[in-house]
Design goal:
alpha+beta, five-stranded antiparallel β-sheet, three-stranded antiparallel β-sheet, 3 helices, globular
Length: about 140
Amino acid sequence: MKTYYCHQCAKQKGLIEDPPAGKKLRSQYQYHKHEKHTQIDSSYPLQSIFSDPSTSVYADYMVNTMIEGAVEIDDIGRKNLIWCAGKQTGFRVEAGNIIRPTDAVKVGLSSVSSSIHAYPENSTSFDPGKCAKCGKPIVF
């Protein structure tokens, strides 16, 4: 079962790192993830693609998620940050075919500076409910 923390409680618990300073794409892994989430590749059965492929927009989504988003601890203990952008961020793609638009961003591996990466997600895939620490409804 996933556990969610509001931004404030996640910050207090040390679950949110500050966004990396300077250049946001620092490693080959991050460049690969940027490419994966900005160019449709039909070899992936499931893929999410940002509408704007520029590295600056990609970096802005990553930083916005880190400074405003809530934390999701998934079923196997991975920490992700989630942020509802309030606008279309990209598309869900299945086997090279666009299926539906996305309106949120998820940042994975947020505690590993060389692996942190962002991808578009649909806000309906999050079911945060209440913060596991303070009990307030999570608004993101």
